[in-house]
Every structure is written in C-alpha cells, then in structure tokens.
Amino acid sequence: MKRALITGITGQDGSYLAEFLLHQGYEVHGIMRRASTFNTERIDHFYVDPHQAGARFFLHFGDLSDSSQIDNLIYNIKPQEIYHLGAQSHVRVSFDIPEYTGDVTGLGTTRILEGIRRSHCDARFYQASSSEMFGAAPPPQDETTGFLPRSPYAAAKVYSYWMTVNYREGYGIHASNGILFNHESPRRGQTFVTRKITMALARILAGKQTHLYLGNLDASRDWGYAPDYIEAMWKILQMDNPGDYVIATGQTHTVRDFLEEAFEYAGLDPDSHVRIDPKYFRPTEVDILKGDPSRAIRELGWEPRITFRELVRIMVDADMEQIGLEPPGEGKRILEEKKFKWLGRP
Question: Which domains are seen in the chain, by residue range?
C-alpha cells in the first residue's frame, strides 16, 4: 500500500487529493496547523466516517514554519509521495502580510525538501506552483515562459519553484512542479472571487444579502475545475522522471464573464446587485493568465473534463443547496455525466 503525505490537507486541493488517493487505495497522512478551531470541514465527510477512509487516513499537527516538526513527520511517516499544497495562498492578502507569506509559502517548501534530504526519505515530491508566477508575462504561458511575479505570493512561489528544481538537480530527489492555473470548486475558500460570487448569489436569492462588492472585473483568468487538476498532480508523481508541467484549460474568461454566467444561470441581473469597491483592487494587477497545457496532455495523458460554463453551474448549484434553496440542477447532472467516481461530494 502506498503512503502519501499532504500539506494543506484541509484546503480545497488537499481535501480533494486526500479523497482521490484514498479511492486509489493509499494510506494518507495530512499535516494541519494547530488552531483554536478544528478546521476539518472539507474532509469531515470521509474523516469522521470510518466506512469512507477506514484506518488509512491520519492527521498530524505541524506548521510549515517549524522545520524540526516537519523533519520528524517525514522521518516517522516515511511516505512514498509528498504533495506540498500548504501555503498562505491568497494573492490579495499577501500584500498585507508579505513577510509571513514569504516564510510559509516560500521557505516552507525548503523545509519540506530539507526534511526529505536529511531523513534520506525516498519520497517523490510534488510542489504546488502557481500561474501567478507568470504575472506580467504575455500569454499563452507554458513551461518555457519566464516568470514576472506581481505579488508577494507569486514571488514566494517563484522561490519555491526554483528550490524544487535545485533539489531535483542537486540531490537527485524526484521533485516536480505542477504549475496550476486557477482551479475552482464548491470547496473554494469564500474570500476567493469565484466562490465569493456564487456564495453571494445564493444569499441574494435567499434574501440574506442585497449587494455583492467586487474589485477588478476585467482581470482575465484560465479557470478549471479543482478535481480535474488533482488527478494531474497524481499523474505527475507517477512519471518515471520528474519534471515541471503547466496544468490549465488553455482558455480565458474575465471575472465579469464568471459573474454574468453565474447570475444568468440563476435568473438574476448582476447590474442590480454588484458594486465595485476599490479596496478589492491589488496594488499590482495581473491582467491575463492563459496556460498552454500541451506538455501535460502529451506526456501525462491528462486533459480537463469540465468546461468553464459547467464549472460555474456546479458551484452555483452547490452554494444554492448549501443555503437551503433548490438549485437548477444542471451542475449535479454534469458531475454525474463526467463520472468523478471518487468524489464524496462536489
């Protein structure tokens, strides 16, 4: 039985990855920060149900700023695969806490890599790199595109990317970067713009909210469905040789497109409810991110299954249902048709 260790286990990607690996028959270990509240909402549907995970799912307290604890966990667990997803991952927030972002998002990666090296652990390492690293680089962006980061978060991710490459080349570690473009789902954090839109839409329909406040509606992103991208992460670590891969749809849409698609699906006029608030603008903006996933399609045999339009419907349905409304239902139908058999819930 393969054993995997996941940082960021309670986040969107960590929860989906844990669920996927359990379905694949793995023993899964996750690192979570000690906090005043037990933040396991995204994994409770299989964590608290022994019929879902059996005795193959384990949580450990740890922090990416604590190298000794990271070393101990890697040495004691002895995983065959390590998926490093943990980070301070909100771009806008990184401008407010740049030092913390650099410590956790940047140096946290070095601590994991050093833990692998010092413990002589023969683990394959996956680094969650980000399309934000490309920043102001002209699209389309692929594995050969130069990085021009436009935020503390992006700069920290660039550091992590190159440390992964250096430990691969310097120490022979099977270390790979997955350069993931924006990927969303009903488990996305509520401060991220896509989930902020679908949550507000559900609350407006339920009469619990009147207006939705947003920033730059013209920012253009390459949006995919998070469970699609989880499968790409796994495929990267199954390769005989490590490497770096762009994971994207190859299509872009603006925040305005997402907003209008969601409101139109629910039968509302966004102009009646949306307001622009300057506080949500970034000090330095990234205008357009568009990935070229040709290498991943060619070498990994991976390609996205969920379209932009389908993604919006999945998220709107889930948030309407969560707030107690009857959704249109197309999102559920889409997931059934695309056969994400390992998903316990969207």
Answer: 3-183+224-247 (3.40.50.720), 189-221+251-291+306-338 (3.90.25.10)
